């Protein structure tokens, strides 16, 4: 598989180092209580806590991989770990089961599922969404399926890893069928 360098489309859209709204608030009991309650919604809720609403400031993320690189360096390797973890080899000497054998091997399968799940979020980031079509839903479907992939790996359910692994594969090909038809060849199938 060749990885061609491609210009990143997203770089210009973000302002790394832009002031974070949390840095603009004076400390105080009310503010602190608000901060504790707000949790992850901090940025959204700060104006409600009585401060001056900061200008909408983009989260200063910097996408490093373009979509092709994200596929080739993050999503595909993790998927291979997941798909290769469980299977059967049938040959002249009979059938050999492939299963994770140690806690570390199960952990690697679980970790791979986390990478797939979070990759769905990476695909939904500004700069990676190509159009207003089904992309978002497809990325979300992959994440939701991968959340189940995590669960069966944590339960050390080998048949579950096999079955949910196939479902993950369908979420890959669904998006490729729409957005990357050139990738749909037999070599991309899980072993
Ligand atoms: C939301 C859409 C989407 C999903 C979901 C998705 N892909 Fe992709 N994938 C793409 C697009 C678009 C490309 C073509 C990128 C390019 O060449 O610019 C691609 C390309 C690829 C490639 C070829 C990369 C190369 O080096 O040319 C591989 C491998 C791949 N995807 C693996 C996967 C796997 C494995 C999954 C599921 C676990 C997956 N993809 C899920 C959109 C998606």
Explain this structure.
The chain folds into two domains: 17-60, no CATH class; 67-188, Four Helix Bundle (Hemerythrin (Met), subunit A), CATH 1.20.120. 50% of the residues lie in helices and 5% in strands. Strand 1 and strand 2 (94-98) form a beta hairpin. It has helices at residues 29-38, 42-45, 67-84, 103-123, 135-154, 158-179, and strands at residues 87-91, 94-98. The longest helix has 22 residues, at 158-179. The protein contains six helices and two strands, in the order H-H-H-E-E-H-H-H. Helix 5 (135-154) packs antiparallel against helix 6 (158-179). 17% of the residues are buried. The protein is globular. It has a two-stranded antiparallel sheet with strand order 1-2. By secondary structure, the protein is mainly α. Bound molecules: heme C.
Write the layout of secondary structure elements.
Elements: H1 29-38, H2 42-45, H3 67-84, E1 87-91, E2 94-98, H4 103-123, H5 135-154, H6 158-179
Antiparallel strand pairs: 1-2
Heme C binds at residues 1, 3, 67-68, 71-72, 75-76, 79, 116, 123, 135, 138-139, 142, 168, 171-172, 175-176, 179-180, 183, 188.
């Amino acid at each position: 598989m060749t990885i061609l360098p491609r210009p990143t489309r997203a770089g210009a859209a973000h302002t790394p180092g832009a002031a974070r709204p949390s840095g603009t608030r004076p400390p105080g009991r009310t503010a602190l209580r608000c901060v504790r309650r707000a949790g992850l919604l901090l940025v959204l809720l700060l104006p409600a806590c009585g401060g001056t609403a900061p200008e909408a400031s983009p989260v200063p993320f910097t996408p490093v991989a373009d979509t092709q690189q994200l596929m080739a360096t993050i999503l595909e390797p993790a998927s291979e770990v997941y798909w290769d973890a469980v299977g059967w080899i049938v040959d002249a000497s009979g059938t050999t089961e492939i299963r994770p054998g140690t806690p570390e091997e199960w952990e690697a399968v679980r970790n791979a599922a986390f990478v797939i799940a979070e990759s769905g979020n990476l695909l939904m980031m500004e700069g990676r969404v190509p159009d207003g079509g089904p992309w978002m839903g497809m990325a979300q479907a992959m994440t939701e399926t991968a959340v189940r992939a995590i669960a069966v790996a944590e339960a050390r359910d080998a048949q579950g890893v096999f079955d949910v692994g196939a479902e993950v594969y369908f979420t890959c090909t669904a998006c490729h069928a729409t957005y990357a038809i050139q990738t749909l060849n037999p070599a991309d199938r899980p072993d």
